[in-house]
Structures are given as structure tokens and as C-alpha cells.
Design a protein that fits this description.
Elements: E1 6-21, E2 27-43, E3 47-51, H1 58-65, E4 73-78, E5 81-82, H2 88-95, E6 98-101, H3 115-125, H4 131-144, H5 161-173, E7 179-183, H6 191-208, E8 211-215, H7 219-225, E9 228-233, E10 236-242, H8 243-248, H9 253-260, H10 267-272, E11 313-316, E12 319-321, H11 324-333
Parallel strand pairs: 3-8, 3-9, 6-7, 7-8
Antiparallel strand pairs: 1-2, 1-4, 4-5, 9-10, 10-12, 11-12
Length: about 325
């Protein structure tokens, strides 16, 4: 895709959470490196999937991109404007163009507010609509996500998990955003409901021209909904590629291990497949290992992997990877 089609450009993004000690005189003794030097582009109208195991920094990345968390370092460019440098009214105005769908539909909706107040809250805060016009817009949004507009005076506890997530989606759409961070929007739902919500997101994307950053750990679902997929491990993106190429020819050893755990609905293929079992635990983001973050668990780690952090480089057209072994193989072939 052409660079002029880039909607969001993330460059060397870092988000560290400080570790302090002491009650009266607290002192800074370290950092939890939740997001550590991450770079990627999100193109207009696409869905970029972001996958990885729990605690790798996926949610923090999404929240930092839309400035719910302010970055420790790095840049987030939205149509060329650096969000990390914005403050006050400029950032407030830009927030209308970016929204988020939260993971837990039970915790993300205020139980004391009606559905109408929840969905209409962004319109009220940004002073877009009021009174009868706001009510009509809320009813329109509820219809858009497949809910009865007569539910406008009900409370969240009267709805199922899938319906609550639809309310969350309606709230995210209230200000007509262009870019939405979907923070594991289906992980808290029943399997039977997950497909309905994903189909709704795809339908809305086609109808409204939305761009998604879709965060998940269900690799099968990510392949279904995403155009490209980025794989995270311990605060870093280790591989990024077109979804089909990534799933058929994964380059990074961590990606290979992840995909080897995804069941295939074909007993013949499944029986012949070799699973990659990673040994040991994920290191602490407060004390990542020297060199490559994956070196302590990598089955093919070399000496250089334990000393030098690999660069995130383009191995093939549109296929990026951060691995010394992959880089050395590419140089040998060329």
C-alpha cells in the first residue's frame, strides 16, 4: 500500500510504568517496559491484527496509540499530526476521530446510566447534539448495531454479554470516528456470540469505511478479520505481515510456536503437524533479558541473540521480522 494511504503511523513507541519504593520519600527504582520501541503503520480502511500471549503489551499499545496512556517516548502520527505532542483542545478535538471498544462489556458500561445516556455521552461531552436530536441519533446507533431502539431507557444489567458489547460498539460509533481500537472485544463473550460480533464489526467497516486495530489472542479469529497481522512478545513487535503469508510462512520462531498451537479442523493434517513447545516462563517486563527478548525461550537461539537486540527489518516485500537467524538466512541467500 502507498504511504499516502497511511492513517496511523507509530514510530519507536515506548510506554514504561515506573516502579517506586518508599512510602514518604518514594524513589524511582525501575520501570515496567510494557511497550518497548514499537513501530508499524495502519492503512486507511484496513484491519491490523495485534496478537500475542497475555501480558505482552497488546492492550497498552492500543491505549497508547489513541492517547488514553501518554507515551514515555516515540511518536503516533494520525494523518501526519503527532498525537504525542498534542495537548488540551487540540487533542480533545482529535479524540472525536478515534475511539475504543473495551474488552469487558460488563465493566465498561456504567450500571447507573441508561443505554441512552451511555451511547449519548460522547455526543454530550463533545457538545455535538442535544435534546431530541441526540435521542434520535442514539436510536439510530442502536439500530445500526442490531439492537431495538426502544431499549434506550433500559439499564446494562438487563442485557446479555453480547448485547452489552453491541452497546459499547454503538457508543464508539457515536462521533463518526475513522479509527477504532478493538481491545479484545470478543474474548469475554460466549463462542456462539463471538462470530456475531465479529460479523457486525466487518459489516460496519464496509458500511462506514472504518479502520481497525484489532487486538486479540484468538489466532483463528484474527486471521478471519485482519488484513495484516503483527505479533508481539514482551513489549516488542517481532513479526508483521499480510495475514495469509504470516500464517502460511511464519519467519520468527515465536510466531511459529504460536501458530503450531492453533488446532486445524483436519485430522490428517493435524496428526502430521509438529507442535513447538516453548520451555520456561515469559521474563518480567520489569527486567527483560539482554539481547533478544525471546532468547531465553527460543529453541534456535544463537550467541548473538543473547547479546544484541535484533532490528525490526523488512525481510521480504511487506514482511517484517526481528530475528538474527532470519536475517542471517536472508543474507546467505542474497
Amino acid at each position: 500500500m502507498a504511504n499516502n494511504n497511511v492513517l496511523v503511523r507509530v514510530e519507536n513507541l515506548k510506554k514504561y510504568f515506573p516502579i517506586t519504593r518508599g512510602i514518604v520519600f518514594s524513589r524511582h527504582v525501575g520501570d515496567v517496559k510494557a511497550v518497548d520501541d514499537v513501530s508499524f503503520n495502519i492503512y486507511r480502511g484496513e484491519t491490523l491484527g495485534l496478537v500475542g500471549e497475555s501480558g505482552c503489551g497488546k492492550t497498552t499499545t492500543g491505549r497508547t496509540v489513541i492517547q488514553l496512556y501518554r507515551p514515555t517516548a516515540g511518536h503516533v502520527y494520525y494523518e501526519g499530526e503527532d498525537l504525542a505532542e498534542m495537548r488540551g483542545s487540540d487533542l480533545r478535538h482529535m479524540r472525536r476521530r478515534m475511539q475504543i471498544i473495551f474488552q469487558d462489556p460488563y465493566a465498561s458500561l456504567n450500571p447507573r446510566l441508561t443505554v441512552g445516556a451511555i451511547v449519548g455521552e460522547p455526543l454530550e461531552i463533545h457538545r455535538v447534539l442535544q435534546g431530541k436530536e441526540m435521542r434520535e441519533r442514539v436510536e439510530e446507533l442502536l439500530q445500526l448495531v442490531g439492537l431495538n431502539p426502544y431499549f434506550i431507557n433500559r439499564y446494562p444489567h438487563e442485557f446479555s454479554g453480547g448485547q452489552r458489547q453491541r452497546i459499547g460498539i454503538a457508543r464508539a460509533l457515536a462521533l463518526d470516528p475513522e479509527f477504532i481500537v478493538c481491545d479484545e472485544p470478543i474474548s469475554a463473550l460466549d463462542v456462539s456470540i463471538q462470530a456475531q460480533v465479529v460479523n457486525l464489526l466487518e459489516e460496519l467497516q464496509g458500511r462506514l469505511g472504518l479502520t481497525y486495530l484489532f487486538i486479540a489472542h484468538d489466532l483463528s479469529m484474527v486471521r478471519h478479520i485482519s488484513d495484516r497481522v503483527a505479533v508481539m512478545y514482551l513489549g516488542k513487535v517481532v513479526e508483521l505481515s499480510d495475514r495469509n503469508r504470516l500464517y502460511e510462512e511464519p519467519l520468527h520462531p515465536y510466531t511459529q510456536a504460536l501458530l503450531s498451537a492453533v488446532p486445524i479442523p483436519d485430522p490428517v493434517v493435524e496428526e502430521k503437524r509438529q507442535r513447538i513447545i516453548l520451555e520456561g516462563d515469559v521474563p518480567s517486563p520489569a527486567n527483560p533479558p539482554d539481547g533478544c527478548n525471546f532468547s531465553t525461550r527460543c529453541p534456535v537461539a544463537m550467541e548473538i541473540c543473547r547479546e544484541v537486540d535484533p532490528e525490526f527489518v523488512e525481510i521480504e516485500d511487506g514482511h517484517y521480522c526481528a530475528c538474527h537467524l532470519v536475517e542471517s538466512q536472508r543474507q546467505a541467500v542474497s
